[in-house]
Write a structure and sequence with these properties.
heterodimer; A: about 230 residues; alpha/beta; Rossmann fold; four-stranded parallel β-sheet; two-stranded antiparallel sheet; about 35% helix; B: about 500 residues; 3 domains; seven-stranded parallel β-sheet; 14 helices; 20 strands; binds zinc ion
C-alpha cells in the first residue's frame, strides 16, 4: 500500500497481535495521518469549535435570534481545519481527487458511532450540491462522507445554483433566501452531513427547512470545523 | 492471437503515440486560422477549451477537432494518455455523477485538471496554423568559437533532417550552448517549423526568454512554466519547463531538451513520455548536457546515439580541476557544525582573495548552522555571509545579492549546482564524500568556477575523509574534457 497523501510505500509492521488477524486497510502513513488534528477536549457544545466557554460567542449570536435559536441541535466536527486539512480538502474537493476521502474514513465513522449510537430512528441527510456544481466536481463530497456510515443516506434536499458562498459577507448570507428545497417529506430526526462547518449558515438553512417539515431534531456532523 | 497479446504487453511497457490522430485538412482558411493557432498540437480536457458547447460541437462534426479516449485500458492496468502514468496506486475510481458510473481516473496529473475514463481528450485535426514567412529570423550578430561553430553546424544538420533524428550535445559547463542553438533555430523558423526548448528549471526559462526575444525579434515566442504570465502555448518557438509539455502532442518539428541528465526529467517517467509525445513523428530531438548519464554515454560509445562534443569553454580556458583535500577530523568538525581547520587554512592562502566563495554542503541543517559558526570566525565579515537552500523563501533575493557582490560567501545545498552563473568565484565542497554529491553533481559544482573571460580560472576544492568513486570519476571526467580540448 502507498500513502494516499505522500505516496510513500507503507511497510506494515508485523507484530504478534496482528500476525494472524488480517490488517485493517491503512490509507495514510502515520506521519500524514498525524498531521490531522482530531477535535477533542474543550469545545463549544453547540458548534464544536475549540473554546473555553461552554458556548462560543458565535453560537450566542445565533441563539439571540428568535428565527435561528434551536434550529440546529448541535454540530460535531471530527477534525480542526489546520493547514494540512486545508490542503487535503482542497485537493479532494476542488481538484477532485476522490480517493483522498479514505484518509478520513476511520476517524469519521468512529466519531459518528460514539456520538449518535443512542439517537433512535435518525436519518442521515448529506448536504446536496446544485446540479451545475455537481457536474463541475463530478461528485458530492458530503455524499462521499455519508457513504462511510452504516446507515442509508436519504437525499431529501435539493439545492438551487447560486453565487459561491465564500464570495458573500455574513450579512449577505443571512439575508439570502434559503437555497434548499425539500423533495420528499420527512418527519424523523435528521443528522446532516457536510465537509466543513464554517459559519453554520448553510447547515442552518437546511435544518430550518427540515424542522418546518416536521423533523423533531436536526444535528450536523461535519468533517472539519473551519 | 499470441501476437496480439505480445503487442498489447509491448504497448503497455513502451508507449506508442499512434493514437494521436492526423489532420485531414491541408489548407488553412481564414475561418479556421484563429482556432488552428489556439489549439494546434495541444491535448486538452474539455475544461481547458474556452468555447461554447455549440461551437465545439461544430468543430467536432467537421473533424476540425477530434476526441481521443483519455485512459488506455489493459487487463493488468491503465495508462493515462496525458501524463503516461501507469502506476497502480496513482489510479483510483470515482462514482462519477457526470456519467452515472464508477470508473477510473488518474491521480498523478490531477493538479492540471482531472483525467477520467468517461471524458475524452480533445485534439485539433484541422489545418496547421500559418507562420510568418521570414528570410532571416535571427538577428544575433555575435561570433562563435570554432568549437561552438562545429557543434552549431551539427545541430543545424540534425534539425534539417526530414526523418527522425537525435543528437546529444555534450558541452562543458560554460561552453555557451544557447548561442550554439541560434543557427539551427534560424533555419527551422525560416522553413516554418515549430520549435520547443524544454528545460527542467523555471529560472532558466525566465533567463532565456529575453535572450531569445532579442535574437528572434519577429518570431512569436512564449515562455511557459508553472505560474508564468503567458500560458496559451500558441507560439512558434516555445521555451518551457519540461512539465509544461504534458499539454502537447505531435506539436513540434524540433524539440531541444536542456540538461537531459538533470532531476526531475531523469527521475520522473512522465517527462520523457511528455517530451516524446510533444515531438512530431519525424521530429528532430536535440539533447544538451554537460554531464550525461551512463545510459547516454553508453549509447554514444556504441554509436547508437550521435553526439557532438564541446570540450572547451567559450573563453577558451580549460575547466578548473578540483583538488581533493583529505581531513581526518572532518566528521568531528561537522557534528559540531564547524568547518574543518583545513578549510580555514585553505581560505587564508587562496590565490585570489578578491573572489567570492561558494561553499557546498550536503544537507540544509548543515548549511544554516555552519553559516553561524563561519560568522563567528575572524576571517569572515559577519554581514556578508549567508546560506540558501531549496525551501528558502528568500532564495531569489539572496542569489541576487551574491550576484551583486553584496555578499562575499554563500553557503548552499546542491540547488545552486546548475544553471546559475557568477563571474568570479572559488568553490569549496564540505563533505564531498556524501551520497548527494554524485559524479554529475561534482562536475556541475566545479563548473561554477572560472566562468568569466575576465577571471577564467578559479579554485575548486573538495574536503573529504575518504575518496569516493564519484569524486575520482568527476576529476577524471574534467581532465578528460580538458585533454580533448587541447587535442583539437
Ligand atoms: Zn503519507
Ligand atoms: Zn459555538
Ligand atoms: Zn495522468
Ligand atoms: Zn464519468
Amino acid at each position: 500500500m502507498h500513502c494516499l497523501w505522500c505516496h510513500q510505500e507503507m511497510i506494515p509492521a508485523i507484530e504478534w497481535g496482528n500476525f494472524f488477524l488480517p490488517d485493517k486497510p491503512k490509507f495514510g502513513c502515520d506521519w500524514c495521518l498525524g498531521q490531522l488534528e482530531v477535535l477533542d477536549g474543550e469545545l463549544c457544545k453547540e458548534c464544536g469549535r475549540r473554546e473555553e466557554a461552554e458556548v462560543c460567542s458565535d453560537c450566542r449570536r445565533w441563539n439571540a435570534s428568535s428565527e435561528w435559536k434551536g434550529v440546529l441541535s448541535f454540530n460535531k466536527s471530527v477534525f480542526g481545519y489546520n493547514d494540512m486539512m486545508k490542503e487535503v480538502i482542497a485537493k479532494w474537493k476542488y481538484r477532485g481527487d476522490y480517493a483522498l476521502c479514505d484518509l478520513f474514513r476511520e476517524d469519521f465513522v468512529r466519531t459518528f458511532n460514539e456520538l449518535f449510537k443512542d439517537v433512535k430512528g435518525a436519518k442521515v441527510v448529506p448536504i446536496p450540491l446544485s446540479k451545475e456544481r455537481l457536474y463541475e466536481r463530478g461528485f458530492n463530497q458530503a455524499e462521499a462522507l455519508a457513504g462511510f456510515l452504516d446507515m442509508p443516506s436519504e437525499n431529501v434536499l435539493s439545492r438551487i445554483h447560486g453565487e459561491k458562498q465564500s464570495k458573500k459577507t455574513r450579512r449577505d448570507r443571512l439575508m439570502a433566501s434559503n437555497p434548499f428545497t425539500l423533495t420528499v417529506g420527512i418527519t424523523d430526526p435528521v443528522i446532516l452531513i457536510d465537509d466543513i462547518y464554517t459559519t453554520g449558515i448553510t447547515l442552518r438553512h437546511a435544518a430550518k427547512l427540515l424542522k418546518e417539515a416536521g423533523c423533531p431534531e436536526v444535528y450536523a456532523f461535519t468533517l472539519a470545523r473551519g | 492471437m499470441v501476437h496480439t497479446v505480445l503487442n498489447t504487453i509491448g504497448s503497455f511497457l513502451y508507449p506508442t503515440f499512434d493514437w494521436i490522430p492526423t489532420s485531414t485538412y491541408d489548407r488553412s482558411s481564414t475561418e479556421t486560422e484563429i482556432h488552428a493557432k489556439q489549439f494546434s498540437g495541444k491535448l486538452l480536457l474539455r475544461e481547458e477549451i474556452p468555447l461554447e458547447e455549440n461551437l465545439l460541437n461544430q468543430l467536432l462534426s467537421t473533424d476540425l477537432m477530434t476526441t481521443i479516449p483519455s485512459i488506455e485500458k489493459y487487463i493488468w492496468g491503465h495508462r493515462c494518455r496525458r501524463c503516461g502514468n501507469k502506476a497502480k496506486h496513482l489510479f483510483a475510481t470515482i462514482p462519477c455523477s457526470r456519467c452515472g458510473t464508477t470508473h477510473v481516473y488518474c491521480r498523478k496529473c490531477i493538479e492540471m485538471g482531472r483525467v477520467m475514463s468517461c471524458s475524452p481528450l480533445y485534439y485539433w485535426t484541422g489545418p496547421q496554423p500559418l507562420r510568418l514567412e521570414q528570410s532571416e529570423p535571427c538577428s544575433w550578430q555575435g561570433e562563435l568559437t570554432s568549437h561552438q561553430q562545429k557543434a552549431s553546424n551539427e545541430i543545424e544538420k540534425t534539425m534539417m533532417t526530414e526523418a527522425v533524428a537525435e543528437l546529444l550535445v555534450w558541452a562543458v559547463c560554460g561552453a555557451g550552448k544557447t548561442e550554439m542553438l541560434f543557427q539551427g533555430i534560424n533555419e527551422a523558423i525560416r522553413r516554418g517549423k515549430r520549435v520547443c526548448l524544454a528545460t527542467p528549471r523555471a529560472d532558466v526559462v525566465r533567463e532565456l526568454y529575453p535572450r531569445f526575444t532579442t535574437a528572434f525579434p519577429n518570431t512569436t515566442i512564449e515562455a511557459l512554466y508553472g505560474g508564468s504570465e503567458q500560458k496559451k502555448g500558441e507560439g512558434q518557438l516555445i521555451l518551457a519547463t519540461t512539465h509544461q509539455l504534458l499539454r502537447f502532442a505531435h506539436a513540434f518539428d524540433v524539440v531541444i531538451i536542456d540538461e537531459i541528465d538533470a532531476f526531475p526529467y531523469h527521475a520522473d517517467p512522465s517527462l520523457p513520455f511528455a517530451s516524446n509525445r510533444a515531438a512530431k513523428p519525424n521530429a528532430s530531438l536535440i539533447y544538451l548536457t554537460a554531464t550525461p548519464r551512463k545510459k547516454h554515454r553508453n549509447q554514444v560509445q556504441s554509436k547508437q546515439l550521435k553526439a557532438v562534443f564541446v570540450p572547451v569553454r567559450f573563453h577558451g580556458h580549460p575547466l578548473p580541476v578540483p583538488k581533493l583535500h583529505m581531513c581526518f577530523s572532518l566528521k568531528k568538525s561537522l557534528t559540531k557544525f564547524e568547518a574543518p581547520q583545513a578549510f580555514y587554512q585553505w581560505y587564508e592562502r587562496r590565490m585570489n582573495p578578491k573572489r567570492q566563495l561558494l561553499i557546498f554542503v550536503p544537507v540544509i541543517a548543515l548549511a544554516e548552522k555552519i553559516t553561524l559558526s563561519l560568522r563567528d570566525n575572524a576571517l569572515f565579515s559577519r554581514e556578508t555571509i549567508t546560506s540558501v537552500h531549496a525551501s528558502d523563501e528568500d532564495r531569489k533575493e539572496k542569489v541576487q545579492a551574491f550576484r551583486d557582490r553584496k555578499l562575499s560567501v554563500l553557503v548552499t545545498t546542491t540547488i545552486l549546482e546548475r544553471g546559475v552563473t557568477f563571474p568570479s568565484v572559488d568553490v569549496a565542497v564540505l563533505d564531498a564524500c556524501h551520497d548527494v554529491f554524485d559524479e554529475a553533481a561534482l562536475v556541475q559544482i566545479a563548473g561554477r568556477a572560472g566562468r568569466s573571460p575576465d577571471d577564467p580560472t578559479g579554485e575548486v576544492i573538495f574536503f573529504h575523509d575518504g575518496k569516493t568513486d564519484a569524486m575520482v570519476a568527476a576529476v577524471d571526467a574534467i581532465k578528460q574534457m580538458n585533454k580533448r580540448g587541447r587535442n583539437l
